[in-house]
Structures are given as structure tokens and as C-alpha cells.
Amino acid sequence: MNVEDPRREVVIMSSRPVQVVHETTTVAEALRLLRHAGVRHLPVVDRGRCVGVLVDVDLVAAAVDGVGGGVGPIARRPVPTVALGADAPTTARAIRVGGMDAALVMDDDVVAGIVTATDVVEALAAREELPATAPAGVPDDRATGDDVRP
């Protein structure tokens, strides 16, 4: 979901509730959760604190390689994060610098959501699709649909 503030800065929000796993969750359990929830990233928590993030391709590779035990060791660290309410440019920078295609949205120290690069692209594209306001005194022909070509 994308929310636009009055300054036309696009604020990125997570598009669905965040699913989390514990470090002791097995690879098979994490894969089932990914499939069931329809997500590609799972934050890994320990005592309520995020300690890493699982990415679908890493879980698939672990399953193919027969990795057993908990998912803690295959979680990516450090985790790219943004504050709740971060705008699109801030979120895009965090994703790029973090080396993943997503960032966790944090509300204080609590994982509030996940924002993917796709979410950022969609938000920026939607912003560009918004009609610009015509300067005062200049009619906005786009509003009427009139063809003003000579």
C-alpha cells in the first residue's frame, strides 16, 4: 500500500502482515511458511529482536543442499532497515546499500513490515502517474480530456 503525503513524497508501507520465524525454525518449516504466506522474505527473531532475514533463494539452496537444523545460520545479516513512515528514496537507498531486494520496516525495535524493491518501484511509478497541477490561471486540458493539439 502506498500513501502520498501533501509534499508529494511517497511513503512506503508494507503490503501485507509480516511473518517471522525463530532461529530454531527448520528449513522445511520456513519454506512451508513462505509458500503459505505468499512471501519471499522472513525476518528471524530471537527473544523478540530481529537477528536476520531469510530470503527464498537461500532457503531453496539450503533445502537442495540438505541443510538440517534451524535457519539461524543461513539468515542474512546485517538486515537492511527503514523506520516506519520512511519515504521512497530513503527506502530505495536502504535496499541498495543493504545488498538485498528488501528492507525491514521497524517501529522502534519491532518489525512492523517488509518493503521490497518492487514496492518502491510501484510507489515511485504511481507518483509519476499522478497528474501535475496546472499553474494558476492556466487551464488544465488534461482534466477535461480535450485534445489541444493544433
What would your notes on this structure say?
Strand 7 and strand 8 form a beta hairpin. Helix content is 32%, strand content 25%. It has helices spanning 27-37, 56-64, 88-98, 117-129, 141-144; strands spanning 2-4, 10-12, 21-22, 41-46, 49-55, 81-83, 102-107, 110-116. The protein has 150 residues and is an alpha/beta fold. It has one domain (2-127): CBS-domain, CATH 3.10.580.10. The N and C termini lie far apart (40 Å). The strands form 3 sheets. Strands 3-4-5 form a 3-stranded mixed sheet. A 3-stranded mixed sheet has the order 6-7-8. It has a two-stranded antiparallel sheet with strand order 1-2. 25% of the residues are buried. It contains 5 helices and 8 strands; from the N terminus they run βββαββαβαββαα. Keywords: CBS domain. Residues 139-150 have a biased composition (Basic and acidic residues). It comes from Actinomycetospora endophytica. This is CBS domain-containing protein. Residues 13-69, 75-133 form the CBS domain.
